[in-house]
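Journal club prep — side note

Before the paper discussion, L.F. wants everyone to see what a predicted structure for a comparable chain looks like in token form. Sequence:
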Amino acid sequence: MEYLKLIRKNKEAVIYELRGEYGDSLVRYIASTPESREVCNRPEIMGVRYTDLLESAITSVLVNFPLASAIRALDPRSIGVVHFLRGSLNFGMRRALARAYGFNIHSSSFITSQRERDKYGRWFIKDNQYRKILITPNGTLFFADVIATGITISNGMDIIVNLAKNSGTPIRQIFFFTIGCHKLEKLLREYHAMLRQLFPRYERTCAVYLEGKFHLADSKTAARIKIQGTDLMRSPCLLAPEFELSQYESIYYPLERCVIYDAGTRACDIEDYLRKLEAYWRELRHLAETGWTLEDALHERWPEDEYRLPIEEFKAVKSKQWQGLSDAFLKKLYGAYRRRWTAAFKKKAGTAQALIDLCDSRLTRLSRVL
């Protein structure tokens, strides 16, 4: 069983080490910041505001990172940021490193990586012809991208590793920041073993998830509305406690189809992105017209099974998932659940009209965004 161990906590960022299950070639963390919670909870934040928040989130994590002292001591000429276009650009890793550590002369590399489905529904990389890559000897490489199927990172890492191998340029360590799922670790373990074999002095591979190690929708995912191989869902998965608490700030948050939707169009093609948001809420409204209730929709995407236990049993379950949290935080989380599920709300949520009204309200808000 995987669990989180609290490492650092302040107003800027909370960082947990992700432990268990593997025994383990990777260093793994889940980090939560006010900015990344906004990005994952409020898909109506888009354009420049979206990228600004992501960059601020990455900066806060870097400042509070457990390995910050070791990174800050590196020669900035040995540091490179690798961008998979266009998703990686949204994270602002190059500027985040400058803001967190004062680096100014670290390098940047770029690889196009546009994924599409073939006629059998399998993902492939359609466009990766443009490459501008610099790998310095014994370099430390930073990556940041949304990870769903992992096809982008697999394609990009193949290019990076082969270039390093053929040029005889050893890589020292890799840090990968993501809003993503387990596919990141699966691939990073493979490349970690490969790099250790190629370069005996290779030191470390580190994965950092923002807000949670999310669930990638697949054929077995019990959700009426989903896009397989694309949607990163809040359940079933391991979330940062702060992100879980934030699901009680608005009824919209746990009902969203995906924590990130389309990360590229969200920054670069706002009208297309907004149409995708509206399409989901219209589809959810259509389900409500067939009798699907608000309670049905909530329990499907945000099951809350452990919250229905008495508080002491709830705390026992959560303490196994999250180590180092205060009793006060767990009481606050349990209280947030109880304040949502009042008798009046439960009665209302048991109707289809409640879901119709909620969808109409959401669609009205989205229509005003532009």
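L.F.'s comment for the group: The chain has 14 helices and 13 strands. Keep this in mind when we get to the figures.
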